[in-house]
């Protein structure tokens, strides 16, 4: 690896070169120079008008391997992540079988070394993510699981939640929960409100999210430990977590890119590609989520990448599966937010913050640092179609649409890829 990037603008609040247009020389996986000088290299990238940051990291993605590889596997998921600008991804344990044994964790870790994007397994909290019996979390930690979660399934059993908070303190482990009282959301397919009434669809109330967050915060205060709320979606959730942080509780949270961009009114056409869980909420909630990011109440932005085959999506809306394949469209979606959320705000939520939450090594765009980088052009146009799609699935509301904002290259230690 001997690469020279000319006239790239650095977007990294932790770098001494933040917001500066410079030349960058990368050699043998290290940044060896950042200046205005020319450096001989095997590969030269003309980066004028482009931005470069530390490599992006996604805390919530489904790669469906093993079990339903026809929707996604580790290889296609890693390719989609790389195309989307991610040098690291933490994957959900909701596979078949569930990631809940040392062998399943080691399977993911062994495969990760072969991809440009690093893949980190998160292991289940309860057996088969049913919420009834705990997994061997300490052994799974030793095998390489970086966090513990039942993924898209909430930890509904209060005693299991309490015991998990206690056990994980032995290893300073992170417990991740997607807050949802499923007895309140059963058979629901979208946000409960005026739009669901008009469409004649059973709603999923925001109360289902708030109740579980309140429960978990009470348990956290009682037992200690730390908890991360995954995929929050409401104004009230932001308020509850903000108050908990002020009280000194070890709590963090993330929001999906879909909830920052879309609202329940986007479902008026019954497009099942917008059907996700938690569901798209109101614009009032959406604006509160953006404010939560700006105030550092929300710590990370995730793709919530959930690939589905056509048989799971091309159905009546209430019968279709939840999920959007979101890895490749993170950048153009963020850029659509424009003045509401500028790059200086969201870049931290895609790079340093998620790695710190998961206790993974961080880097910065500076001399002698490891080259873990994402280069992107905010004005480049492209179309998500069968030619550009790296995922095995096509369940995206942006499919066959012209998009603005494209990742041009990623660098991960001794590996790199340039995208045309």
UniProtKB/TrEMBL annotation:
CDD domains: DHOase_IIa
Taxonomic source organism: Reichenbachiella carrageenanivorans
Keywords, in A-Z order: Pyrimidine biosynthesis
Gene3D superfamilies: Metal-dependent hydrolases, Urease, subunit C, domain 1
Domain Dihydroorotase catalytic: 50-237
Domain of life of the organism encoding this protein: Bacteria
Pfam families, sorted: DHOase
Name this polypeptide is given: Dihydroorotase
């Amino acid at each position: 690896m001997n690469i020279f990037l000319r006239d790239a603008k650095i977007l990294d609040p932790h770098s001494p070169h933040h917001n500066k247009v410079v030349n960058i020389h990368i050699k043998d996986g290290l940044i060896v120079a950042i200046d205005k000088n020319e450096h001989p290299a095997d590969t030269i990238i003309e980066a004028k008008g482009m931005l470069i940051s530390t490599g992006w990291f996604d805390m919530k993605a489904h790669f469906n391997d093993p079990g339903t590889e026809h929707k996604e596997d580790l290889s296609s998921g890693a390719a989609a992540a790389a195309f989307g600008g991610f040098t690291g991804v933490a994957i959900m344990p909701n596979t078949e079988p569930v990631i809940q044994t040392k062998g399943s964790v080691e399977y993911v870790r062994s495969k990760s070394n072969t991809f440009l994007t690093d893949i980190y397994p998160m292991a289940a909290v309860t057996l088969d993510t049913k919420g009834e019996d705990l997994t061997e979390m300490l052994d799974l930690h030793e095998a390489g699981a970086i966090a513990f979660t039942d993924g898209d399934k909430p930890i509904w059993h209060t005693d299991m939640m309490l015991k998990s908070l206690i056990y994980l303190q032995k290893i300073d482990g992170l417990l991740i929960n997607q807050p949802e009282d499923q007895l309140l959301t059963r058979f629901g397919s979208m946000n409960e409100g005026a739009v669901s009434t008009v469409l004649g669809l059973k709603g999923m109330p925001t109360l289902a999210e708030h109740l579980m967050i309140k429960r978990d915060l009470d348990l956290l205060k009682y037992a200690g430990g730390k908890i991360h709320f995954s995929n929050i979606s409401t104004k009230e959730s932001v308020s509850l977590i903000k108050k908990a942080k002020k009280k000194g509780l070890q709590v963090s949270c993330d929001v999906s890119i879909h909830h920052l961009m879309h609202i329940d009114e986007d479902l008026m056409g019954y497009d099942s590609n917008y059907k996700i869980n938690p569901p798209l909420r109101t614009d009032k909630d959406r604006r509160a989520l953006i404010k939560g990011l700006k105030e550092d109440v929300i710590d990370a932005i995730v793709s919530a990448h959930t690939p589905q085959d056509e048989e799971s999506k091309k159905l009546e809306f209430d019968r279709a599966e939840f999920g959007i394949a979101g890895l490749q469209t993170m950048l153009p979606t963020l850029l659509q937010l424009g003045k509401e959320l500028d790059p200086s705000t969201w870049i931290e939520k895609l790079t340093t913050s998620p790695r710190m939450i998961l206790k993974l090594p961080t880097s910065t765009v500076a001399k002698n640092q490891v080259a873990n980088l994402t280069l992107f052009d905010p004005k480049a146009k492209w179309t998500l179609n069968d030619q550009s799609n790296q995922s095995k699935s096509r369940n995206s509301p942006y499919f066959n649409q012209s998009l603005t904002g494209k990742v041009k290259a990623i660098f991960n230690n001794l590996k790199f890829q340039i995208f045309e």
